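> forwarded from #structure-qc
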């Protein structure tokens, strides 16, 4: 309810608000609940990745993560855009899979595909740290 105005915000502004809340551990349940329409489709993909990664560590069982992953990260059409997300942000998402079964089950394969599409941009050490796919 407190974040209802995010429904009217532009994507970058909504992302900044959500990232500040999540990074400071504030209103995490509400931030997770905001990862749905009409806000979700307006958020830049890199910010969706950051939010899902951070929330995956603090709210690993929150079903709102599934919605964000399935609609913005997991679809095959998102692969090319996901490959343009900085490797450090994709690593955050891959690392969140250690704490969140939702992230592991629904996002890890997409991270691996994005890494394979942009392998030349990845530091070798980061490639080696990617969790293995089941």
């Amino acid at each position: 309810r407190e974040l209802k105005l995010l429904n009217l915000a532009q994507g970058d502004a909504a992302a900044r608000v959500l990232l500040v809340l999540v990074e400071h551990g504030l209103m995490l349940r509400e931030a997770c609940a905001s990862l749905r329409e009409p806000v979700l489709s307006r958020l830049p993909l890199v910010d969706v990745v950051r939010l899902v990664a951070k929330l995956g560590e603090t709210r690993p069982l929150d079903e709102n993560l599934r919605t964000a992953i399935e609609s913005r990260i997991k679809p095959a059409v998102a692969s090319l855009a996901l490959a343009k997300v900085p490797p450090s942000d994709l690593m955050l998402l891959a690392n969140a899979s250690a704490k969140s079964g939702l992230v592991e089950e629904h996002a890890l394969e997409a991270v691996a595909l994005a890494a394979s599409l942009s392998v030349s941009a990845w530091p070798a050490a980061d490639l080696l740290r990617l969790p293995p796919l089941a």
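QC bot note: The first helix runs from residue 11 to 23. The two ends are 39 Å apart (CA to CA).
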